[in-house]
Design a protein that fits this description.
- The protein is an alpha+beta fold.
- It has one domain (2-97).
- It is built from 3 helices and 6 strands; from the N terminus they run ββααβββαβ.
- Strands 3-4-5-2-1-6 form a 6-stranded mixed beta sheet, with helices on one face.
- Strand 3 (55-61) and strand 4 (64-70) form a beta hairpin.
- The two termini are 15 Å apart.
């Protein structure tokens, strides 16, 4: 599970911050597969995140956009989609742990 450290929600755009994890990509892949992202997009996310710094990864499927900004310490993820917050969180709960 990917542990979320911080969340900001704004009208269909959600920002999440997570600490760098060795398994981040392995945990992100099932989420992308459930959303039916293309193999090409999934392969872009299938990288060893602890080796990245100052890296930007953009993933898109129709109107569902994910921006990953990777620094030495954190992965900043912005999800821009037409889903309501409750629907998005419901999709994410299998792979992400939200702060209490």
């Amino acid at each position: 599970m990917i542990k979320i450290n911080g969340i900001v929600d704004e009208d269909g755009v959600c920002y999440f911050r997570s600490s760098i994890s060795e398994d981040f990509h392995n945990q992100l892949i099932p989420f992308l597969e459930r959303l039916k992202f293309s193999e090409e997009m999934i392969l872009k996310a299938d990288t060893y995140f602890p080796n990245l710094n100052e890296t930007y990864i953009y993933l898109r499927k129709d109107t569902f956009k994910i921006h990953l900004f990777v620094t030495k310490s954190f992965i900043h993820m912005v999800i821009d989609c037409p889903l309501k917050k409750k629907e998005l969180y419901s999709l994410m709960k299998k792979d992400f742990v939200f702060p209490k």
